[in-house]
Amino acid sequence: MEQQRGIHKGDPPSSLSELEEAVTGCRRCPRLVEWREHVATTKRASFMDEVYWGRPVPGFGDPSAHIVVVGLAPAAHGANRTGRMFTGDRSGDWLYRSLHRNGLASQPTSTSAGDGLTLADAWVTAPVRCAPPQNKPTPLERNTCAGWFDAELALLPNATVYVALGQFGYHALWSHLGRSGTAMPKPRPRFAHGLEIELEDVSVLCSFHVSQQNTFTGKLTEPMLDAVFARAVAVASG
Description:
The structure is a single chain. The chain is an alpha/beta fold and 238 residues long. It has a single domain, classed as 3-Layer(aba) Sandwich (Uracil-DNA Glycosylase, subunit E), CATH 3.40.470. The protein has nine helices and six strands. The protein has a six-stranded mixed sheet with strand order 1-3-2-4-6-5. Helix 5 packs across helix 9. The N and C termini lie far apart (42 Å).
């Protein structure tokens, strides 16, 4: 509990492993704690024989990454089940296939935390660490989780390109950059797929989220997603 309180009092963890230990023990949001644990107990029929993670989910990837992918929150039967961001659901299938095609992932699939997947020059995270009901965190839950988000991004010293998947991730990232002292234009540019913003030391790229709501309807296609990550690689390469 001291680690959890300390991070919100300006005493951040000194390493990603220390942060992971603190994040995965967090119980600050009663609604999210109740939901993630309910899902982990009741389970989905197709995963009935599996042991669900049922806790906050830490970020995943290359600690030396120049590219940071920012989503929304863990999926109830995806990362809340497997314990790894964007792993075990169709959203993750889309994300990691694109990362693989762009040379950022060792394989195109992400099915479990022990499947051998590694990332190169990429880190995947979310501003909310617990699976929310209906995939909709409240503003209070987002703000409560902001301390973990700030601490994590501060521990990625090479991060220069942020890819925001969806409007929620974009707004959370924008708030983080403002809190970290980055000079921000006003008003905030309106979210749009393909939006690219150059700030003083970092670049922000935006994509529609890889949710089934977007991929099943054709609002987001694989070529569209690939183009965003190809651009991220190019910007990160200088």
